[in-house]
Design goal:
About 65% of the residues lie in helices and about 0% in strands. By secondary structure, the protein is an all-alpha fold.
Length: about 200
């Protein structure tokens, strides 16, 4: 088996693990897997066509919490777009225009000074309000650490109906230890019923 074949096999294995993490409500675990997987995709070089790399990148992006790591996801989307534009093959479902739209949405999201939360929600059809601190670089810097601590504290808790309330309380306390006064989705949307 060649190195490229081994790397391709590892990419598939990582994406499968990321999908499993997402299904288990542990998307934060996908962040280090995404970093490894993207390095492997980049390392494929000429062994893989640009469209194949774009597909693999898209599979990674789909398993990330884009609003928790928007700057990282933007980097991946820009690379995905580059591969799509380099490809002589075309895809019916993964198009440069679609990726450009995703890029524009996340650029709006991180444009804290230029776009209010209300404007962002209106422009992009988002109905739930969110704490503006979630848009900051600091949020993204500590995302993995905070989620890892939440996961550790909640490891014995069943992840079904009502889990979000315990998770938000634990997350709020952990974020406070970083000097961040965070308001949960429930606090930001008092008229919405959460499970």
């Amino acid at each position: 088996m060649t190195k490229a074949e081994k790397d391709a096999k590892r990419i598939i294995s990582n994406v499968d693990a990321m999908r499993k993490n997402s299904g288990e409500m542990a998307t934060f675990r996908n962040y280090p897997l995404a970093q490894e997987t993207m390095a492997l995709i980049e390392g494929l070089g000429e062994a893989e066509e640009p469209l194949g790399k774009a597909y693999a990148c898209n599979a990674v992006v789909e398993q990330l919490s884009e609003y928790d790591t928007p700057r990282y996801v933007l980097r991946l989307l820009r690379r995905e777009l580059q591969w799509l534009e380099e490809s002589e093959e075309k895809s019916d479902w993964l198009t440069p225009d679609h990726v450009r739209g995703e890029i524009a949405r996340l650029e709006d999201y991180i444009d804290i000074d230029g776009m209010s939360m209300e404007d962002f929600c209106a422009r992009h059809g988002r109905h739930l309000r969110f704490d503006p601190v979630e848009r900051t670089p600091r949020w993204e810097e500590i995302y993995f650490e905070v989620e890892k601590k939440c996961d550790s504290k909640l490891k014995a808790e069943p992840r079904g109906m009502g889990f979000c309330f315990g998770y938000w309380a634990v997350k709020r306390g952990i974020l406070a230890s970083y000097g961040i006064d965070w308001k949960s989705p429930q606090a930001m949307n008092p008229r919405v019923m959460f499970d």
